[in-house]
Each structure stands twice: as C-alpha cells, then as structure tokens.
Design goal:
Chain lengths: 115, 113
C-alpha cells in the first residue's frame, strides 16, 4: 500500500515552456503533499507544502509565481514550472502524507531538462 | 528547527560484509526519525522509521537502526550487504508535532563483489 505515482518521469523541453508535473496517491487520501527539488548528488530540498483545498506554503527562497502548486483533491497535487529556463533543470520529487500520519511516501521523481 | 548530519558521504563495502551508516540529529523538541533509500533516477523508499517505543527498529531488506536519545543518533546497520544494496541512503528527521522532513546530505553505499 501507500503508493504515490508521479508523472511524467522525464521531460525535455525548450526554454520558456511551462511544464506540469502530477503527483497522485493511488491507494490512500493525502491531506498533505510535499514538493522537493534535488540537484545532482545532493540531498532533497523542500520547495513547498501542499494542503488539499488551500494555498501551498512555500519555503524561503522558492518563487511561488514560478512554481505553481495546486492540490485540488485528496489524491492529486500538481506542480507547474512556469516559463522554465535551463536553471530550472533538476529532479523534482513529490511525497504524500496520508491523513496526517507519518511517514511520507515518495513518488519516483521527474527529471526536468530545459534546453 | 531540526537538522541532520550524515557523517559519511561515501561508504564502499564488500558483498556479505556488514555496513553501518551514521546519522546524528539536532532538535530542541521530540523527533521522529527515518531512513530512506534512493536508487538511481528514482524517488525515495522508506527503509524504516522511529516514531516511539522500542529504540531498536527493524526495517525492510534486513536493515535496522537504533535510536539513541542521549547521543542524538540514529545509525543504520545491515549485517550482510548485497550488490543490490548499492544506492544512496538518506537519514531524515521531523519534529513529532510537524510533518516537514529535514534530510541529511546522503551516504552513497557502493557494494563490491
């Protein structure tokens, strides 16, 4: 149980494109989802916390207009990287928390490459 | 705020040998502790967690960890590793009254035949 699906797994697109990444909890309801960014050979950096039906809470230094997060249902959160540029290239990982109970369950990540 | 220090960035080990990955944390409040494993180009998989109760925690794939409050440590151990244990391992901490995780920098385990 506790499966989190992230889609797409890999995206390659041109600079200026907006990219949407989906995170779904497949077999549980996720009241809270998290979005992380991971640079090569580094740890995960929390970008934002997404609560169903309310605005996301962004970590310091993360541009909320750049990284739009929507958590419209208890099983789906989306991250949209708007007007992506090469410096936005990274590995983005989501996680989900079921009804407030630890631990977080992680998706398989999305490799975003902006040309 | 909580923080995590993983003392070893890389751990090479021979197949069937034991391995220990060290993790120390800092927090002014009670904590939950986790170990996750990440295989190349994949997300994180939970190995084990400490929320409360017994300080010796057993996880998947033969891993175990011991919570030591006085030493603020949560070291991960496996008595006999396999080639398939080659991966990146992350220790993480959260305050027991919060859901946010703080991750260590990670330890790369490379198992050689």
């Amino acid at each position: 149980g506790a499966v989190v699906s992230q889609h797409p797994s890999r995206v390659i697109c041109k600079s200026g494109t907006s990219v949407k990444i989906e995170c779904r909890s497949l077999d549980f309801q996720a009241t809270t989802m998290f979005w992380y960014r991971q640079f090569p050979k580094q740890s995960l950096m929390l970008m934002a916390t997404s609560n169903e039906g309310s605005k996301a809470t962004y970590e310091q230094g993360v541009e909320k207009d750049k990284f739009l997060i929507n958590h419209a249902s208890l099983t789906l959160s989306t991250l949209t990287v708007t007007s992506a540029h090469p410096e936005d290239s990274s590995f983005y990982i989501c996680s989900a928390l079921g009804q407030g109970n630890q631990p977080q369950h992680f998706g398989d990540g999305t490799r975003l490459s902006i040309l | 705020a909580q923080s995590v220090t993983q003392l070893d960035s890389q751990v090479p080990v021979f197949e069937e040998a034991p391995v220990e990955l060290r993790c120390n944390y800092s927090s002014s409040v009670s904590v939950y502790l986790f170990w996750y494993v990440q295989y190349p180009n994949q997300g994180l998989q939970l190995l084990l967690k400490y929320l409360s109760g017994s300080t010796l925690v057993k996880g998947i794939n033969g891993f175990e960890a011991e919570f030591n409050k006085s030493q603020t440590s949560f070291h991960l151990r496996k008595p006999s590793v396999h080639i398939s244990d080659t991966a990146e391992y992350f220790c993480a901490v959260s305050a027991s009254n919060d859901y946010k995780l703080s991750f260590g920098a990670g330890t790369t385990v490379t198992v050689r035949a």
